[in-house]
Amino acid sequence: MGEPSRTETPSSADYNAFQSFVCTDPPNREFDRHRGLHHPRIWELETQSAIRNYRFPIQSGDLAIAIFDEKRNLTGACLATRTEDNDHLIQAIAVKLECRNSGIGSELLGRMLKETSNHQDSSGLVVARIHRENEPSQQLFTRFGFIPDGYDQAEPQYTLWWLDRFQAP
What we know:
With 169 residues, this protein is α+β, with helices and mostly antiparallel strands. The protein has one domain: Gcn5-related N-acetyltransferase (GNAT) (Aminopeptidase), CATH 3.40.630.30. It has helices at residues 15-19, 42-52, 104-117, 135-143; strands at 30-32, 36-38, 62-68, 74-82, 88-95, 125-131, 147-151, 158-164. It has a six-stranded mixed β-sheet with strand order 3-4-5-6-8-7. Strands 1-2 form a two-stranded antiparallel ribbon. The longest helix is centred in the middle third of the chain and has 14 residues, at 104-117. The protein is globular, with a radius of gyration of 16 Å. The mean pLDDT is 84. Residues 26-169 form the N-acetyltransferase domain. It comes from Gulosibacter chungangensis. This is GNAT family N-acetyltransferase. InterPro entries: Acyl_CoA_acyltransferase (IPR016181), GNAT_dom (IPR000182).
């Protein structure tokens, strides 16, 4: 028997955990023995801001999936909303730096896809905007069957990725 899922739908009681979530380094130059001299990447800062600014209670059509540690600190989150066309747009997915490469991103995205399939009036299309330099997210979404489909016209540094659950293998 497999290990039970650690993912859950957060509540208003988790507001402070979302507000203090960190998935990137501070916005200044730092040296890390693994990453060398670096600045946070723009998509990391944007994603961190999206999660920190998430508003509770969860609104109709919105979905939020979270994983917490034993002290109820946010370890990872995935946020999505339903569009006017009844598609689901994944707005953010992030994992704390020290928890990356542990399967949390896959667990979050898998649970989010399960949740979007529970919406009976859904079009079946799930869309994500991924920065063209964000290779870890591109690899994650590719593993789940997402296909890149051109650039976001408003922000060409982002590629639109989509998954049609009714046509997926």
